[in-house]
Amino acid sequence: MHAWPVQGRGSCAPEVMPSGRDQRSASGLEKNRAEMEALRLELHAAQRLSQAEEEASRAAARRVMMAAGAVIAADRQAALDRAQARRAAMDAKALLLEPAWLISDLRARILDEFDGHWPAILDVATTGELGLPFPRQLWQATLFAQFIEGRSILSGVSPGECAAHLTVQDLHESETKAIVREWFDVLVAAGYLLCAKAKKKRYSIGAARVRYTTASKRTPKAQRASEAQSRAARESAARAASVRSASGNPTESARRSGHRSYVPPAPPVVDPIRPGIALCRDCARPLAAMFVARGYHLMCSPVQRY
Asked: How far is the C-alpha of 223 from the C-alpha of 131, rounded, in Å?
């Protein structure tokens, strides 16, 4: 038997050399790690580029918004300047008409109707952006005398007709109507006009229209004249009734006896404030067309009483 030498401490162990297969595997791993690192760096660079582009886009959007805001502010300021210039031109034109208005017959008549005091309802400072090229007392008194004063109760008053009556060349009709409508609201609060929403048609688009009509309130002078006329008419009717009663009611006697004697009709009693409107001889209220010839309402007629 052969004895093999025992390797101990200090002896040289044989060196293990890697095989070719192990070398190829190690180089493949190194190559994969390099490729992964390259992909990571490329992804990181792409992310940084995307962030930079996004930040640049946000900065560009901010610059556009700031520029748009500056343009809008400039346009708004320019529109405000134009409106102020137009308002100043309107005020200048109104100032030129002021001397002639102060000595006009219309102003004197309005003062007489209101006992020498100019009414607040005809001196309303409207908040219209451009205003009107007339003194506010002038155009309000003109519309009041033309469309409101002396008209029968519940007569329609249109802001469009009033705006057309003013015929303002430098203003659109809608702007003039807005100013007139604001003044109408003051007249409604004072009792000279009534306001009600017109019935909206089916399938109509937009807000309901507002209808203005005249109210029963009159100027102080017209109110006193109407009351005096009513009293005079009642007194006249009472005197006529007493005369007929004292004479044995000849109208009723003639009717019963069948005599158709002709009696010329008496002239109708006419409202002095509203010409063309006949009044009842008894109650002094307006008559319908069918009762104008009789001079009385059906229940106010002396024939009905006896």
From this structure: 33
